[in-house]
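Structure (tokenized):
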């Protein structure tokens, strides 16, 4: 994906469509097209790159994201993995490598498993679209209770509380 003020967000001669082969395939999805080169207008505050993968094998893969000149003040880039429900921060002026597995679980090879999102400045080094103003946790009758308050929420749809037995 190339970002520049001279590019349009429409599909045009500056974009190149992906040619499918019989082995693994990756591309960038824009307006129902799968592209190998996507030229887009400069990132303003937020933006997303939707990735499509198909014909994947039951293997361990490593995706390499090479970014340059995207590190603007307050901007964060995240590689979201819909299957693992994770977001890995990517370097915006360097190379980021992320290892992932495709298993026998069909969701692990979903064509829309990954996307890259660019965010505007938020609290906690850009990782959350809100500010926690108060957090309290306590155990009552063998149940854990959590109470929190937030401020400055932006585009928050829901909260998901997870428990970890090993701190990971």
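Design, position by position:
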């Amino acid at each position: 994906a190339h970002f520049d003020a001279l590019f349009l967000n429409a599909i045009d001669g500056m974009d190149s469509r992906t040619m499918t082969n019989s082995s693994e395939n990756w591309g960038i999805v824009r307006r129902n097209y799968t592209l190998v080169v996507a030229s887009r207008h400069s990132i303003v505050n937020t933006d997303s790159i939707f990735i499509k993968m198909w014909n994947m094998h039951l293997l361990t893969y490593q995706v390499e994201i090479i970014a340059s000149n995207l590190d603007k003040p307050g901007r964060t880039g995240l590689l979201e993995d819909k299957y693992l429900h994770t977001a890995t921060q990517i370097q915006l002026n360097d190379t980021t490598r992320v290892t992932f597995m495709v298993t026998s679980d069909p969701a692990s090879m979903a064509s829309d498993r990954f996307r890259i999102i660019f965010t505007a400045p938020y609290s906690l080094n850009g990782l959350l679209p809100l500010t926690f103003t108060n957090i309290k946790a306590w155990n009552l009758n063998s149940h854990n209770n959590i109470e929190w308050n937030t401020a400055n929420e932006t585009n928050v749809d829901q909260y998901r509380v997870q428990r970890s037995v090993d701190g990971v």
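Reviewer-requested clarification: Residues 132 and 150 are 4 Å apart (CA to CA). Confidence is low (pLDDT under 50) at residues 122-126.
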